[in-house]
Structure prediction request, 114 residues.
Amino acid sequence: QVQLVESGGGLVQPGGSLRLSCAASGSMFSIYAMGWYRQAPGKQRELVAFITSGGITNYADSVKGRFTISKDNAKNTVYLQMHSLQPEDTAVYYCNAASHVTYWGQGTQVTVSS
Prediction:
């Protein structure tokens, strides 16, 4: 079992920045990738970014150049640094860990509004 706890969401003005954190605990040895997804009201959950155990990263086209995913292996924590936030980035952001099963955090709300 793996437990994921997100933090760092909130309200930010357009053009602002936020950093999300996802602290993982439990049986981490089987995890081969971790990522961030988001779900806006009335829309499907979508991949934002992921990072593999080897450090390979991938991003949705909509966030390339604005968001950066990183990890601290010593802390079992994955981060999502978000810059130049826009209203369309408003969503609940979920942390995800992939092994033979998929684990999800509880989500953290990000609201971009003036």
Remarks:
- The two ends are 40 Å apart (CA to CA).
- Residues 6 and 22 are 4 Å apart (CA to CA).
- The mean pLDDT is 96.
- The chain is about 0% helix and 55% strand.
